[in-house]
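Exercise 7 asks you to align residues with tokens for two separate proteins.
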Amino acid sequence: MKTLVTGANGFIGSAVVRLLLDQGHSLRVLVRPDADRRNFEGLDLEVIEGDLTDNDSLKRAVTDCNLLFHLAADYRLWIPDPDTMYKTNVDGTRNLIMAATDAGVEKIVYTSSVATLGINSDGTASDETTPVSIEDMTGHYKRSKFLAEQEVNKLVKTHSSPVTIVNPSTPVGSRDIKPTPTGKIVLDTIRNRMPAYVDTGLNIVHVDDVAKGHLLAMEKGEIGDRYILGGDNMTLASILEYICINQNMSPPTIKLPHNLVLPIAWFMERIADITNKEPRATVDSVKMSKKMMFFSSEKAKEKLGYQSRPGVEGLKDAIDWFNSEEYS
């Protein structure tokens, strides 16, 4: 049995790859020619070079595969040319799933995000049924993932594509080589670059638990259904407090109003437009932080047997990994 994984060099993707190899899967991965391959270096797998915008490479990648885990995505909260993100996340996802279906792939797990879900205004945890629309999507990343999910659902109905969707929350842990926006929070905190914070909340989950959820979705997930893969709902203040206590540091005590941070983020983006370097804060991230991004994984627990360890264990693994790799 041949299994294809896209995004295998990424944070969640590399954790999925390791679990699949542990279970004896014969693996093929699709990666860009210029991709950072440290996350799967030395592992026993077949590499196909290409990307989601190259249909020929998609057809080569899915040939003779039985299963597909589609994790590859353009995940950035600031991007100079948003069109490239939509071509990758929306068009690329549609083209890959169509190619896989036409090639006879038996089951597909598509990695979406909790970014596509509704958020309760009262701060309680949202689930897969919380109302949401495209108008609720802040920024190009969220919009592109929302539209990609819509394309996947269409293909399930019109193309008989055998897809189950998973919606990871905010993973943390080892091998966050980029790092992700949440990884940057951890890194900035342990490097004394987090003097203040805003009042927000995240659902923190260990990346290895998210990876296990992917395999459970492949095994037990219903076609056309979706499952939140999350962990603990934590305020940003409590996240920073845990990180600082772990590192024998004093946590930041200055809580900034969102409307004060917004013009600072706008100014940082204008500088980024000139330097072409990602800003430390973005307008979209500040807007998103106005809500408590809390989610429930009860459906995945009930239907898939999904479990997650305490979120702080993921934070500790992230801290230890950034320190061991001497990230600055």
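Second protein for Exercise 7:
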Amino acid sequence: MQKDIFNIQNEAGFTEVALAVFKHQFQTNRVYRSFCDLINVHPSDVQKVSDIPFLPIQFFKSRKVLASREEVQEIFTSSGTTGSRTSKHFVTDIKLYKESYRKGFHHFYGNIEAYTVLALLPNYLERKGSSLVYMVEDFIARSKHVESGFYLDNVEELSKMLIKLDKSGQKTLLIGVSFALLDLIEKQQFNLKNTIVMETGGMKGRRKELVREELHAILQEGFGVNEIHSEYGMTELLSQGYSQGKGIFKTPPWMRVLTRDTEDALSIHSPGKNGGMNVIDLANYNSCSFIATQDLGKVHKDGTFEIIGRFDSSDIRGCNLMVL
């Protein structure tokens, strides 16, 4: 079944694989099975994708969410404030993650070897267990350009490299957290013609939170680009959505986003309504592919989506099923 995940060609193919993955995880993932039993959902009740239960993402903070008995190869952890509980994603087959992010990037941007990859991810580099750093490290290695690399505090060196590469006509990917990209353009203004600027979100208390439109307008002006790209991923997923401008995200063929009612967490919205975001990531074959996140968003009829915000610390209304 794993081999089918990255060979999905259409909606019928996605549905077939998703239903098969659900049955597999119902049988093999004890945490997910307990959740399904609690809300009284059995595979015989699930005939379409919208019938599949979505596991609240908080379980990754308190339980070992696994659908495999194989040895754990990597443990990805979320960032968190001091003393807060972090999510842990136990990965038993790191090849699945590599195949997912490599094919996902290629799906939207082409061969990574064509790019010089410059990474500005200071807060991720300062801790262990970041799935984003793991992915970008691999992009840097596979880009085949000696100039590719991570930058921490050497912003002046990064500025010079960006200008040099862009002027030479070299396709460049600058991927960074929001606050670090803002820090960069406060020190240097750019006029980039051959560079994709991709933000991964994340002020994390380093700066005042900005709405996306405001953040992107500032970054567009500072880098001299027409669009700011974005990456949507998280510790609990093995796939990413990408926005190539205006905050509209697309997913690779093995990933989908749905929205749920904020008052009734088990009710799925039709496209066009704001709601809590449920993510299907079939690459999460060995953990859980059906996750109810704490993000708020809107899904359009064509399957693209926008991030609107997050649920606050008062937790998700209408769902007392967060703790088993």
